[in-house]
Specification:
The chain has two domains: 3-25 and 118-243, Beta-Lactamase, CATH 3.30.450; 31-113, Pdz3 Domain. It has five helices and 13 strands. The protein has helices at residues 89-97, 119-139, 149-158, 194-214, 228-243, and strands at 3-9, 15-19, 31-36, 46-50, 53-58, 70-74, 77-78, 83-84, 87-88, 108-113, 165-167, 171-177, 183-189. The protein has a five-stranded antiparallel beta sheet. A four-stranded antiparallel beta sheet has the order 3-10-6-7, with no helix packed on it. The protein has a two-stranded antiparallel ribbon with strand order 4-5. Helix 4 (194-214) packs antiparallel against helix 5 (228-243). It is elongated, with a radius of gyration of 23 Å.
Amino acid sequence: MKIFSVYIINKSGSLIYSVDDLEPITDQITSVTRSVHDSSCEIPLSFQIIDERIIVDFGEWGAGIEPGTSITEYNDKPVVKVRCENVNIFELVKSHQKKELSDEAYPFKITFEKPKKTSNEKIVIASMFNTWHAIASQLCPKKNHSQDPEEEAYFLKDKYEGIKLMEMDDVHLHCYQCPTGTKFLLVSETSHDSSDQVKNLLLRIYQIYSDYALKDPFYTLEMPIKSGKFEACLKHVVQQMKRGTLQLVQ
């Protein structure tokens, strides 16, 4: 199973650790460049500005250019906040599509790539998921108390679980919440038995968090984790899972 990302959220909903690109992309097109020579060249796409990026909203322009990709370069120079130097790329493309662009702007090249999550986007995701998790915890039927002491102990053990798995078309989002309220999120590829495979990995990540973050005398509780040893061990256990050598957590 492919593991793409790991996130850790503290009990107040703040993102304290994240790592992406755990799975190298070898079978996907990551960057595509198209040249527009004159006004007769068509750009069969519609665009929207989302989070200060020019995102393809509708249409395809060959392999690797489909809805969800973004314009990242203009004439081999980076596009930042829809602009490249003094050129507004969003307005430039719109003018070209309307046949209103001056001849001096031709030819030009634009590069499309899959957008990566920014730090702000990750913070928003963490805050939103923390809210969903709290709602799910309140709605969980295991909140009901039982007269049986063993069942009551079981309910108390699981009272922090909330959302454990969110299934989407392309990925699965897994969550484990420890008794202190810290949540460990993991993004994996879709699989019919993903929960069983990932559960042990999340527990191992929790152990690493306890050993290399909480026991660090220079670490402040609930603050971002900046330990190189922690990240190295985390990536190591992810590779162990992929090789099938990850030990079960008792």
